[in-house]
Amino acid sequence: MRLIEQHGFTAGLPAWSAAGGSPQLRKVPARGAHGATEVWSFDATRCHMTHCLPPSVLTYDCRLAATQNVSGSEAHAILAKQRVQRPVSPHLTIYKPQITWIASSFNRITGVALSGGLYLFGFAYLAAPTFGWHLETPSLVAAVASWPVAVKVIAKATVAFPFFFHSLNGFRHLAWDMGIGFTNKAVMQTGWTVVGLTVATSLYYTLLG
C-alpha cells in the first residue's frame, strides 16, 4: 500500500489467491494522480510490480518469504548451520608480505609484550615481600650471574630485539605524526632502516653489552 500511495495511486494491495497449490497472477487497475488508469501486475513468486504507462517505467522487486515461529534454541541451531556453510573471508595468507604491514604488526606485538612484561614485573615486585620472593636488585644480579652463557644470551636477545625495534619504530611513527615520510618509497626505506638498526643494536647489546 505504501508503494502505491507514494506514487499517487488509490488502489489497495492485490488480493492473492491459490488454485491447485499455485499462487495466481492478478492485475490491479489503479487511478493515477493525473486521472489515467494505470495497470500494475503482481507476480506471486517475486512480487514483481511494473508500471505499464509512460512517461517512465517503474519496476519494483521484492522477495516473499515464508515465516515460521521457532524457539530460541532452534533459532540458534539454524544460525549455526548457516555459519558452517558460509564462505570464509580471505585473511593474511592471501597478502604478499610487505615491510609496511609486517612492521606495523610487530610494532603492536612488541608494544604489548614490553608493556605487559613491565606490568607483570611491577606487580610481582610489589607482591614480593608478601610471598617472600627476592626480586631486589642484588638478588637479581646474583641470579643472572649464575646462569650459563647460552641462557644469558637468549634472555638478553629476547628483551633486546623487541625493545630496540619498538623504540626505533617509535621515531618513525613520530615522524609520521609530523607529516614526514608518508610516500610509499619513504615508508619502505624507513621500514627496512628500522629492521637493520634493530638487528645491529640488538646484536651489540646481546653479545657485547
List the defining traits of the structure above.
209 residues; two-stranded antiparallel sheet; flat; four-stranded antiparallel β-sheet; 3 helical TM bundles of succinate and fumarate reductases; 6 strands; alpha+beta; 10% strand; 54% helix
Describe this structure in words.
- This protein is an alpha+beta fold and 209 residues long.
- Helices cover 54% and strands 10% of the residues.
- It folds into two domains: 2-60, no CATH class; 93-207, Up-down Bundle (3 helical TM bundles of succinate and fumarate reductases), CATH 1.20.1300.
- The strands form two sheets. The protein has a four-stranded antiparallel β-sheet with strand order 3-4-5-6, with no helix packed on it.
- A hairpin with a 7-residue loop joins β5 (49-51) and β6.
- α3 packs across α5 and α5 (149-177) runs antiparallel to α6.
- It is flat and about 75 Å long.
What's the level 1 CATH class of the largest domain? Answer: Mainly Alpha
Q: What is the straight-line distance between the termini?
A: 81 Å
Strand order of the largest sheet: 3-4-5-6
Rough outline: flat
Question: What percentage of amino acids are in beta strands?
Answer: 5-15%
Domain tally: 2
CATH topology of the largest domain: 3 helical TM bundles of succinate and fumarate reductases
- Which range best describes the helical content: under 10%, 10-25%, 25-40%, 40-55%, 55-70% or over 70%? 40-55%
Mean pLDDT: 77
- The CATH homologous superfamily of the largest domain is called Fumarate reductase/succinate dehydrogenase, transmembrane subunit
Radius of gyration in whole Å, from Cα?
A: 35 Å
For the record, the CATH architecture of the largest domain stands as Up-down Bundle
- Are there runs of 5+ residues with pLDDT below 50, and where? 1-55
Please state the structural category. Answer: alpha+beta
**SSE string, helix = H, strand = E?**
HEEEEEEHHHHH
Total number of helical segments? 6
Would you report the number of β strands? 6
Largest sheet: 4 strands, antiparallel
